[in-house]
Amino acid sequence: MTTLMPFDEATSTYDPVLGLEVHVELGTVTKMFDAAPNAFGGDPNTHVTPTSLGLPGSLPVVNAKAVEYAIKIGLALNCTIAESCRFARKNYFYPDLAKDFQTSQSDEPIAYDGYLDVELEDGEVFRVEIERAHMEEDAGKNVHVGGADGRIHGADYSLVDYNRAGVPLVEIVSRPLAGAGKRAPEVAAAYVQTLRDIFRALGVSEARMERGNVRADVNVSLRERPDAPFGTRTETKNVNSFRSIDRAVRYEISRQAAILAAGEAVTQETRHFHEEDGSTSAGRAKSDAEDYRYFPEPDLVPVVPDRQWVEELRASLPELPAARRRRLHDEWGFSDMEMRDVINADALDVIEATVKAGAAPATARKWWMGELARTANDEGVSLDDLSVTPEHIAELQQLVDSGALNDKLARQALAGVLAGEGSPSEVVEARGLKVVSDDGALEKAVDEALAANPDIVEKIKGGKVQAAGALVGAVMKATRGQADAARVREIIMEKVGS
Fold this sequence. Notes:
By secondary structure, the protein is an alpha+beta fold. The chain has helices at 7-13, 64-76, 184-202, 242-261, 307-316, 321-332, 336-344, 348-356, 361-369, 371-379, 390-401, 407-418, 424-431, 439-452, 454-461, 468-478, 485-496, and strands spanning 15-25, 80-81, 88-91, 101-104, 111-119, 125-137, 141-145, 157-161, 168-174, 177-178, 214-223, 234-239, 269-274, 279-285, 295-296.
């Protein structure tokens, strides 16, 4: 059993240093070096060409849109864009790498020397220095059959699906990040989340972590004091959720601290993260750059981005997430806690779209963070996967604001929209959900309630006006919640003579 030092003790005894390598799959139509479709899923080995499979005689051609997306990412990360860069062969053997090398970039990346300011929930900001952002291709996927949960351990045999081979990637490599102390896990997760938000804002990737569009390799090392040399690092591979990144960093700090406290040495290696308990386990001995025998890719010419084009791309960058959040926070008037809740729920986009469709910020937030958030949680999906649109919510709220619906009826209408019965107006019409505001119908219901509750009438006449609530409730029940409650109260008070 692995020995762990309590996290607080570990971070007070040792200084953690992080390094993060984040891979993002670019949302181009075709792959990085060939015309095979860049699409998620599909039957195994159907999104391939001879180039995807590394077959003899096949030659690569650089995807121009992938270069554009890489430059946009570099600019958003405050990087210098190279005047000239080239691809290299990164040599290693693995079954899902058909040609036994990955076409990547080594000492000549497309973007370098940048930074990203990462804001934590309490407002504290950590600057993460970016060493480089380089282009490369993804590998295929090994499928292990017969083992537990698709793992190689205990599998009867393995298959390879090359659909993902050649998908365009940008890898963003940070410089060592020190000084975070006990906040290191939080900083790591917030950094990757900030990157994910930037990718989406730029439109360069769907950035869906559950699909592996964004993956992080998390490097952790410990040293005895901030001025000491860096310790031996481990690299936990392919962590693909913010919570898992936090847990992986936390576990590695506690594990390495226990090893060092016992007078032993940390092994430089890759490690696998286990979602079920937040632990990591040893993978393979970690290779250094020289082990990959990089050399220039002879089949590809250098990439030389035109300077005017780079400046045009810089001018075309959208408002980036941090600036957008600050602007919306001020425009909407949300408290800091309300805004954090919206961001943590990944609800910013849908709320903004609902406001643009005509709803007030507070009511848009009420629907998405209340009824719809509960529905998404129950169904195990994200808010934007629900079968309701921001326009639906704006329309629903308009019906409430006009008096056509009360909150109870609006929730019933929303349930119909979620069930696929149409727009809010169509559901209201089909289900007969409109508020009853006709005085004739309301007076009849009030008269029945008064006749059935003479004791309550006497209480109201005696000055206990709050007792009218019971009569309002009786009328609402009789009208299946469709009465205009405010008008019902007015009629009751008029009839009782109070």
